[in-house]
Amino acid sequence: MMKRFISVLLLMGLLQFAGAQQRPQYTQYIFNNYILNPAISGIENYIDVKAGYRSQWQGLDGAPETSYISVHAPLGKNFLYGTSTSVPQSGGTNPNSRSYVQTYMASEPHHGVGFHVVSDKAGPITRTDINATYAYHMGLSSNVNLSLGVAAGVSKIYLDRSRIVLEDPSDIAIGTGDYNQLRPDISAGVWLYGPRYFVGAAAQQLLSTPISFSDDETYDQGKKVPHMFISAGYKVYLGDDFAVMPSVMVKIVSPVPASVDVNLKMAYRDKFWMGGSYRKDDAFAAMAGFNVGSFMNIGYSYDFTTSGLNTVSNGSHEIVLGVFLNNRYKVSCPQKSW
């Protein structure tokens, strides 16, 4: 009972902005950056479908659980009848080989669209986000692209009062009114990419709408705050079959300190990859994944908690399944997003 009460306090602190992020935590965002940045919409020349599930802080009552599905694809006749993203028939050069740099061509200018649905549950609070995305990709040179993207949608926030135990049942912080709240949401992003690098920035929750479950309008309410994600990565070729891809992401959510993720991923041809990640003051993670022909891929990660929660947490599990639809060029490994 005490553990549940503590969890409730932490979660209500989240909504009142007492020192925590409001969007879900991901370890395998490097496997699906689209979930963070709408500018990636339509970056490949197939319909990219991904489903993910994350169970965070195993063993802790009320710990966060996140699941999502995302779908995005390029638009236009070039995508339907030609190579909108400049990938030859049968997938072209293995993107993890050195010769890929020599044959790489920037994507032709094109539009991309998509959507994603994210459900995040933590203790008595469940949040569901539904967003549609749009991006435009333009060539800055023969092998460099820049894309700009936006996302718009709604957030549904639900409070399960049956899971809350209060010392004072009449506490004005928890009222008896609407259990569900719908809030509009807007995000924007930019993504610069070439054969060996990417640099991106995205801002989520640009509308600072209020969040409160109190019946008393004079009671101090919380609100949604913007989240900024800045990321960059570089591909280093090791021989003809191996590539190492270090990357970093900085997450900025005022007023808490910035969060920094450092990743290292090693890939063998277009077959499989493994890597590790470090999130400052939070966790180390081990990751691995493989591609199944030109139809699907799968990735798994496990977080070893290093924060004070390691005394009650057994770590975090995350799995992501990807499917390539309308993959008429038989690409078996992402060519533009790695």
Write a compact overview of the structure shown:
The chain is mostly beta strands. 7% of the residues lie in helices and 48% in strands.
Structure commentary:
With 338 residues, this protein is mainly β. It has a single domain, classed as monomeric porin ompg (Porin). The chain is 7% helix and 48% strand. It has helices at residues 2-15, 77-81, 99-103, and strands at 47-55, 65-74, 110-122, 125-141, 144-159, 180-193, 197-204, 210-211, 222-223, 227-234, 236-238, 242-252, 259-268, 272-279, 283-292, 296-305, 316-325. The strands form 2 sheets. Strands 1-2-3-4-5-6-7-10-12-13-14-15-16-17 form a 14-stranded antiparallel beta barrel. The protein has a two-stranded antiparallel ribbon with strand order 8-9. The longest helix is centred in the first third of the chain and has 14 residues, at 2-15. The protein is globular and about 70 Å long. The chain starts with a helix and ends in a 13-residue tail after the last strand. Residues 1-19 have low confidence and may be disordered.
Largest sheet: 14 strands, antiparallel, barrel
What is the second-level CATH architecture? Beta Barrel
Overall number of strands: 17
Question: How many individual domains?
Answer: 1
What do we call the CATH homologous superfamily?
Answer: monomeric porin ompg
